[in-house]
């Protein structure tokens, strides 16, 4: 049974940082294409970042230079380091492996 459990969300001021974690079980993050998505209120879910089994990373233009996706194979965990956060980054962030989703973690950027 595959489980993806996100954590690390919260309330942060504009310009601040957060690191989201996605702890996986039943699937190897080192051998899977892992992604982060987000969904803001009233909007469709949006792809944010991907890391492949070969460690290739890719980002949506709006977060390039601010967000970094990475993984710890020993902990079977994927991370999303988010710096220079903006109010428009406010959303529920979801971890995704092929055919599987986590439950999401809320990120709110507000002064």
Please, could you describe this protein's structure?
The protein has 111 residues and is mainly beta. 0% of the residues lie in helices and 51% in strands. It is built from no helices and 11 strands. The strands form 2 sheets. Strands 2, 4, 5, 6, 9, 10 and 11 form a 7-stranded mixed beta sheet that branches. The chain has a 4-stranded antiparallel beta sheet with strand order 1-3-8-7, with no helix packed on it. 32% of the residues are buried.
State the oligomer: single chain
Number of helices: 0
Structural class: mainly beta
Show unreliable segments: none
pLDDT average, as an integer? 97
Write the layout of secondary structure elements.
Blueprint: E1 3-7, E2 10-12, E3 18-25, E4 34-39, E5 46-51, E6 57-59, E7 67-72, E8 77-82, E9 91-97, E10 100-101, E11 105-109
Summed up, what is this model?
With 111 residues, this protein is mainly β. 0% of the residues lie in helices and 51% in strands.
Task: Name some characteristics of this structure.
11 strands; 111 residues; seven-stranded mixed β-sheet; four-stranded antiparallel β-sheet; mainly beta
